[in-house]
Amino acid sequence: MKKQTIEVQISDGVAKVVLNRPQKKNAMSPQLHRDIVDVLEQLRYEPAAKVLVITGAGDSFCAGMDLKEFFAELKDRPEEYDRVYRMATEWRSRTLRHFPKPTIAMINGFCFGGAFSIVEGCDLAFAADEAKLGLSEINFKGFPGGSVSKSLANLLRPRDALFYGLTGRPFGGQEAARIGLVNMSFPLSRLEAETMAIAKEIAGKDPVALKATKDGYRFSLEMPMDAALNFITAKEAEMTLRQGDAWRNEGIGDFNKGKFRPGLGGHEAVKR
Ligand code: COA
């Protein structure tokens, strides 16, 4: 799958989605937003893609919104500005957040501003130690607009969000892991191998149970207790129906027959 600004390679159940404007540090132009919306729509229904890994071409993950093609060139075209703005916030804060398959951000280099909403919209994130991340908006007399402020509020502790938001200081992958923006940081030379190993591990799990895990976490966060408990009960019924009761038959059933130990790993990986 190849678009003007995005390339997708699928292997072993993992779709690697590459933001592909390396000459512009993969900044999100209006065309990139259009392309990623199409790509996510196709991958949603692509059976070979069980997990998505989003990364960037060259030395950059994503340099945020395109400061020229979006903010400057659409300044006097309010309708087009609004169209792109809505698309830009929608795919990161809704489509990606509630994507029916697990998503991973692999931060291979520069990651600024609007790119934080890609990172936060993904379920997991891994960074290179050498990556350079930052809420650079304050440095150009702006602030984390669009979906970014909400992403910070969702993910970071108040002190970290406001420290980096107010100073605009860049930081590396290890600091990103320390503040919980990413799960882990690895030397760049190992980033892809480590990330893909985790992606493949997840791709081997039951897809309906993976979606229930995401939905149970993400939606219940926004619900009061009674609504959450009711929602989770309904989710269990939905999962049972959609996977044909695989969790009880092949999962718990095989444990009860002494075939594997789920506490120690996946159904196939850890046999007695
Ligand atoms: N929007 C549009 N173009 C961008 C961009 C952005 N967010 N980030 C980088 N580019 C472009 C540069 O304008 C340059 O284009 P040119 O070659 O046509 O002049 C090209 O990408 C390479 O960038 P350059 O600045 O020369 O590379 P660098 O390695 O010296 O610095 C960055 C890289 C990312 C640190 C620097 O480009 C930067 O600060 N970008 C802005 C980041 C930002 O504030 N993003 C938040 C947006 S919400």
First-residue to last-residue Cα separation:
41 Å
Query: Radius of gyration in whole Å, from Cα?
Result: 20 Å
Q: Helical residue percent?
A: 40-55%
Structural class: alpha/beta
Q: Which properties best describe this structure?
A:
three-stranded parallel β-sheet; alpha/beta; 2 domains; six-stranded mixed β-sheet; 272 residues; 2-enoyl-CoA Hydratase, Chain A, domain 1; 11 helices; binds coenzyme A
Structure description:
α3 runs parallel beside α4 and α4 packs across α5 (148-155). The mean pLDDT is 96. The strands form two sheets. A six-stranded mixed β-sheet has the order 1-2-3-5-7-9, sandwiched between helices. β2, α1 and β3 (51-56) form a beta-alpha-beta unit. The chain contains eleven helices and nine strands. The protein folds into two domains: 6-203, 2-enoyl-CoA Hydratase, Chain A, domain 1 (Alpha-Beta Complex), CATH 3.90.226.10; 207-269. The chain has helices at residues 30-44, 67-72, 78-96, 115-121, 148-155, 158-167, 173-178, 188-203, 207-221, 225-242, 246-256, and strands at 6-11, 14-19, 51-56, 60-62, 103-107, 110-112, 124-128, 133-134, 184-186. 48% of the residues lie in helices and 14% in strands. The protein is an alpha/beta fold. Residues 24-25, 27, 63-68, 110, 112-114, 136-137 line the site of coenzyme A (COA). Coenzyme A (COA) is lined by residues 24-25, 27, 63-68, 110, 112-114, 136-137.
